[in-house]
Each structure stands twice: as C-alpha cells, then as structure tokens.
Amino acid sequence: MRKLMLSAAAAGVLLSGPLAYAATAAAKTETGVIAQIDAKAPSITLKSGKIKTFLLGKEVVAADLKVGEKVKVTYEMVSKKPTASMIVAAK
Prior knowledge:
Layout: H1 2-25, E1 28-38, E2 43-47, E3 51-56, E4 70-78, E5 81-89
Parallel strand pairs: 3-5
Antiparallel strand pairs: 1-2, 1-4, 2-3, 4-5
C-alpha cells in the first residue's frame, strides 16, 4: 500500500509540470489603450485597432488603471470570456 501511495505521489509530481505548462501556454496578450473602465463589472475596454473588452480577474485592481493608459493585458478565456490575469504599462 505504501509503495502504491508513493508511486501515485511521484506520478502526480511528474505530470503536474506539463499541466502547468499547458495552462501558461493558454495565456494570450493584447496591447492597447484603455478606452473605458467599468468598476462594477469589473472590466476594461481596450482599443488596439479593434475594441475588445476584458473581464478583470481577482489579481487585477480596477482602481490602479486609468483611461488613456497604454497597457499590455495578459488574459485567458474563462467561460468563453477574455479574463485579464495581469495588466502592466506598455511602452
């Protein structure tokens, strides 16, 4: 029984690497200017040649953002909606 538990734990550790990579690989980025901030939703609208709205993940604080600021949004599709996990100032 002990060997089985150790084998299962080792397999879990070895398999978690590819899964973590797959989650990171799914993240996309978009750079543009913040056109609108909706603190209630919470979401931002980014203008980057096209207009795209991103929901803000728990990691992103809407109060830290400003309309007109050029930013780079890192996002993933959550329930078929682009959800920002990180927003940083862009050059």
